[in-house]
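Repro case for the chain-ordering regression, as requested:
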Amino acid sequence: MPIILAGLALFYGLLSFGRYWIGPVSTQAEIDLHPAALPKYALYSLLRIAIAYGFSLGFTLIYGYLAAYNRKAERFMIPLLDTLQSIPVLSFLPGVMISMVALFPTRQLGVELGCVLLIFTGQVWNMTFSFYSSLKNIPREMYEAAQVYQLSWWQRFRQLELPYAAIGLIWNSMMSVAGGWFFLMACEMFVLGNRDLRLPGLGSYLQTAANAGNTRAILAGLAIMIGVIVLIDRVVWRPVITWAEKFKFEQVEAAEAPRSHILDLLRQSRLLSLAAHKSVMPIREALDLHFARAHASTPTPGKRLASRWAARIVGVAALAGLAYAVVKMLAVAASVSWSDLHTILLGAGATFLRVEFVLALAALWTIPVGTVIGLHPRLSAIAQPIAQIAASVPATALFPIILLVLIRVGGGLGIGSIVLLLLGTQWYMLFNVIAGATAIPTDLKEVCDVYHLKRVERWRRLFLPAIFPYLITGFVTASGGAWNASIVAEYFHFRGQTISTVGLGAVISQATDSGNFRMLLMATMVMAIIVVTINRVVWRRLYALASTRFKLEA
Amino acid sequence: MPPPTFEAVREVLSQGRPDEAAAIIQRLDASAAAGILAALPFEQQQILFRLLPADFAAALVSHFPYYHEYVLLHSRPTREIRAIVDQLDPTERMRFLDELPEEAWQRLMDELAAAPAEAPEPAAVSPVIPAPAVEKIIEARQVQKSFQQPDGREIQVIAPLDLCVESDAIIALLGASGCGKSTLLRILAGLTTPSSGAVLWHGRALSECSPHVAIVFQSFALFPWLTVLENVEVPLLARGMPHYQRHRRALEALKSVGLKGFENAFPKELSGGMKQRVGFARALAVEPEVLFMDEPFSALDVLTAENLRGELMELWLKKQIPTKSIFLVTHNIEEAVLLADRVIVLGRNPARMRADFRIPITQPRDRKSAEFLLYVDYIYKVMTQPELELAPPARREQPARPPFQRLPHAKPGGMAGLLEFLNDRGGKEDLYHLADELLMEVDDLFPIVEEAELLGFAKSHEGDVEITPAGKTFAEADIATRKSLFREAALAHVLLMQQIRSALEKKSDGAIPLEFFRDVLDEHLPEEDVQRQIETVLNWGRYAEIFTYDSETDRLLLHQATSATDQSSAPLH
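-- result from build under test --
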């Protein structure tokens, strides 16, 4: 029964969303602050996330498959993916929004698509990487079994590749969707110069509420948002993870398995199992047999000439397009004036210092706190869920609220942006430190007890080295997140005025507002280059060090 | 030996005219004739050998490894054996009889004594193999496999070889680990394409037909997310078999391996032996013509493996499995002798056929019988004696590579243990007994023996290992002396060690990036092997205190260089 109701609700939501999409573009977004409007906004936000996730999944499967099985494609697809992954997506927000609105000037569709595209670029890379590396890691003998028993590509995909990749894909999907909220909030609050492109959703609701100083609406909005996030966790992720237990590639059964009541409910539902028997099973059987027979009738899997030519043409076209874009970009870059360049570099320096300061600040409190939590199981049982909920709130959603508070106490965006960045980054570090501290083997702790190591020695010899790899993982994610957040944190439309501080993010946002395309392009490029360079030069080396020297081997 | 003659013999044999082939062979001198004979498949060897007159057969003996002759002899009636033995050159006869293991010698003596001229043949041995009525299922012709290195260099892992899989036989392919036997299996099964040469199924190229094969894997290769039944159904579904039929067939297969009642279990709920049963059921369900098995029992414990082998043999002997023949890859010598009708031994670097012979012991075989032990012993000897090359005559397209010394992947500690053991046992021991007593597989033992041999601490000869005086000194020394003995030996015998040492001494700072030696090795070896060689050389060099290795900078440092900081306390260096 609840399943039917849920289905109907979903159907209604889709219909109304569709009608709104086709509707004309609204340049003056009206956000209704009445709490009764909240469910509608929550649904809109949720649908954007869902659609972006759908695209991400499709892209992941195709790109991962191609990269894993086509040697030639792999050679440039993987470095490309790696670079794209480390570029701060939010720096593209203004550019993407402008072009999308230009593409569909009369329809709301443009803004919506821009938002979906941005969430997509924010969440797709790690999923793709996970899928690709799963495909690459399928044990050789299992692969040979599939080959020797002549499985069709479909059967191989359904019975070997997808199940093998499932767990990694699911965990990365979870992370991606959580990250998606971050971008969604930023998108929904987006204002382009005098054009208010805000999308009706939770993000714009929160911002409007903060603008109006409406505490009740702020609290209601936050509550709904946390509720939605927790609900998704319970209704979607937890059942899926529990269900995916069977894809665990283990030879012996685990002692402890996750449980989900909702999954139990679904499994026991007679209606559902009947429906599955009548619909899914026959379709699956038909598909399996169809592909098996098709496979059997073409014994030589030799590549067809036409497809090879098509691949070549696509490749050449892509290269030509890329070359054209690069030339164009260079032309624009060459025409940037010295004073502009000066502004950009100054901003870059400021943002760089700000980001590093924030990382240091975050490390300063998360390392001791996280380690203590991780070392004491009882404490972590209490602290972990609280921290998880706190972390689930996307930092971008809190920006307007924090700004409101800051302005009331009389601080500017100089301090404000640091607080905002800290909010966006500290959780990654905290969770990683906790995970690292939890993983310290008991015998090593006992060694410290036996030899009466002093507290300082204990930290130096055991705790810090042991959490080092986790800390680096946290730093990498946090650093990327901080650069991303700087776009929205350094420049903000609030109560009809613009508040900003010196920084690259501010340069980008300002250029967008004033329609200075050249500046926008240059600043975005500079930011991408800085982040990619830092990743390559600093984090990757530390990562290599962490995974060799500081790895706790079983 | 001129290849045309070999080709001619093969040609004539394939046309079913062994008499002519025998005639051709008799025109050659004994050593050339033995060469041609040894290069042929064993059945053909036997056929030809039977056709040769006793004096010519006797002349061939000195050109065969002793046991080869022994087995060949038994393809003839006992009185002919007697005639041949009688016609042996006296010194040859002495050598032949002397070299025979005691059990074999005793048997031969018994047979000769019990069989005066017209006596009937003893039934236990001398299986007169029927003329080539056997059907050839797979025929590999001059298959060769080489891999391309990143720098474009080709490394050959399988030298061109001929091989056929005939019906009604269990064929075991034996070889040390990493010798390319699994690759050969995959080539025959159609999973890997050979770099050159052809694999024919019933005379047709592999690419033109989809052969009915199945593989039982060492790691089982079951899909953990599918139930036992679904796992067995996987290949049936791939054939487009509808649900009902698929179900029935899978259940039958499960029943035949004794897994009825486990259909709905998941693989992770089963023990290793049960999992491999599922692997067998999956393979049998497709009714393969040839069942390939890649070390199917290696991942199981001893008792489970023995049990499973027994059950497999029962199914096979009672003709309850729908396969025409079984091709088994293993490194376990006893397993091969226990199961196989025919054994092929592969040599290493690149893989080439060392021996190909039949085991005429009737099933079920008794592990303790003299005959069984004879074959085990024989295989040990073939495997430990690289000079016993029974490979096809050289028709290598590629020039021989410069000699390259490959280090056995073994640690100094293991060798020390072996030497101590040998020393306690009076200095000499049969390899087979050694493996048995140390509970070690051949794969683990051989590298250690090789290491001891390379360093001059032991000698192995025809399946025995003997400790040398140097080895004895080593075994009885204390740790510090052992280290210096090891250092001297390593510097004297190991080429790479000498190179590293002299390179380090030439550098003023006594340090060289390890990368340099990696590049040197890259020219000779595939990538994984380079890693193993490096590991070994690091292990030996550090133990011998020839150099130290700094993993952070990836550099080798001369040993003295590291202790230079406290020279006052290290005057010995």
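Ordering looks correct now. Chain A has three domains: 1-254, 307-333, 337-554.
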